[in-house]
Amino acid sequence: MYLKAVLIFPFIGILLLSLIRSYRISSFLNTLFSFLSFASSLLLLVKRESAGLFFVVDELNIVFILLTNFVGFTTALFSQKYIAHEIKTGHISAVSLRFYHAMYQSLLFGMNLALCSNNIGLMWVSIEIATLSTVLMVGIYRTAEALEASWKYFILGGVGIALALFGTFLFYISARPAIGEGLSAMAWTNLLSHASNLDTSLVNIAFVFILLGYGTKAGLFPLHAWLPDAHAEGPTPISAVLSGLLLNVALYAILRFKMLLAANPHALQAGPLLMSLGLASVLFAALMLYKRRDIKRLFAYSSIEHMGIIAFAFGIGGALANFAGLLHMSMHSLTKSAIFFAIGYISQIKRTQKIADLSGLTASHPVLGWGLVFGVLAIAGLPPMGVFMSEFLVLSSAFAKAPLLAALLACGLIIAFGALLLKLVQVAFGEPKGTSAVVPSLYLPMLSHFLLILAAGIYIPPHVVEWFKHTSLLLK
Amino acid sequence: MNHNLNFDISHMLAGSMLLVSFVLLYQDRMFSLLNVYTVHALVLAAASAWQGFVQHAPHLYATAVIALVFKAIAIPLTLRWLIVKLAIHREIEKVVGSGISVIAGFFLTALSITVMMKASGGTDPMTREDLSFALAVVLIGLLMMVGRRNAISQVVGFMSMENGLILAAVGAKGMPLVVEISVAFSVLIALIVIGIFLFRIRERFDVVDIRGLEKSGGER
Fold first, then answer.
1. How many domains does chain A have?
2. Which residues cross the membrane (chain B) (predicted)?
3. Ranges in chain A, pLDDT < 70
4. ipTM of this predicted complex?
5. Cα-based distances in Å from B154 to A47, A158, B69, B182, B220
6. Model confidence at B207: pLDDT above 60
7. Of A191, A308, A309, A324, nearest to A258 (Cα)?
8. What part of B 63-122 touches A (C-beta under 8 Å)?
9. Structural domain span for residue A460
């Protein structure tokens, strides 16, 4: 019942919002529906149903459901003012905006469905829904760059879904002798309880397909090419949810399958695969950060870096590393989306995304400028913010298990730290450049995220720690 | 009907799909590409229907009908209409030549047969062969997507890849219908996306050539 609410609100949202022409009404309704989904995801904390053939809510996905709906709600709030300004300046025409809010709800619907689905086929379909909605939104500006970005996203995403679907089929085929034909052999909980009876050689090859397929969507290194373009060219609210949420959902799918492998003693070890992909992403992204000239592209590469850290953490495995991975996932979502909120208003004020044309933001726009400083310091991993905590935990668990790789990871983190600081000094301090027009803005979403990551860095309530600990034990 | 004949016919249908995939690889005219794609979808429909008959699984007939109506009729007709509307029925520009892409196709086929035969040793031979052919079709679809510059031929590559996925799904005994319908839907959605895109690309650049996009690309 409560679970259905998380899905029903966005679904009504899609239907209703695709009918409404006025952007004022639709952006209000968008926020309202996002809030209702968030409220119903809170209810899931109180009351949970047992797993069915289609849906499951357990310790693992409830973290993601809450996070997704919270950031979905704050981004909808941010999007209200942002979109109003884009319409006023004529960057988005009313015609192309008409489906923007409907697509936003369809993205939320897709992500929620993916997170609570117990059926591996349904999970695939819902990740596909979420991806296609963002493909449409990335191209909304209709500039040459935006079209190229969304076409690239569509093509690479298509490659990714094909591989992931093939992997899903192979999982079904591997389970068929043990569980029997039909839907029950696609239910993830059934797969887990029969994990040691699955056909091992098929499961191994299936996981490689899953990892490459969903890894494309998570933006892991050799498959990341769509990510910087999609983040830089789409509207900023979409960059925020792409970075903060959709990448997480793809990683979550990989985690579910990893649990199946971990439960089968004869199967391939997923850890080293995840670790190497993660490490490659961190090192690659850290080096790429230096040459960025576009501020949204800069933070897109930083997202690749953080997805790498998270994949690395889950690759190490064990209670501590999994705990760190989960914490890092939530901290990264909150911080990165807040940074995009700040950048969104900044690029509207300065009418540019070029780092060279931005300077002295702390002097001309104190809230946004210092907000950006805080956000970048947080994402770079300085104490006392939450990202520091999680990165520290990742590193210390890595040093315990694989010191050499941990050293490489630390190098990557330091290189990225340097690049971010370098760019930050350029943007935040010095003589203000360009216009200092005032745009209508709402700081509440950004500030609430910052408050949360600061709180997480200083003090995490014991039952949240218990909760994450329990989840990390589930992950093995 | 004896078991061997069942096996042989499904083998033949899956093999023909792979063959048509190869034919797709070296097409250099837009309309002939679409015609070959139609044959691809028809063979898929036949393969699904045959699997439905062999497995006594009526839902596979639905898959066959979906393949026939959407993939073999509706989508090629729509794309044909788009091509005429946009006046782009000239030669298809390729990144790699036909010869090289066919050779690459051979390697991909060999790879997928080796891998799938080894990995699926525990399952029945029918599933095993279907899977290896399906993987080969998927990989050749991928090859087409990276080997072509033209948006429409990339789309055809994408759709032939999805045909390969459905071939894998119908070969897997007892696979729930959920997945097949979803694949069909995703193709439809993809088509909508593509339709919108082509028109937008058209209104911006007057060509449906991805190179036009790349020139104007931002910083990389």
1. 1
2. 6-26, 33-53, 59-83, 95-119, 131-148, 155-175, 181-201
3. 1-2
4. 0.84
5. 47, 11, 21, 21, 22
6. no
7. A191
8. 115-116, 118-122
9. 1-475
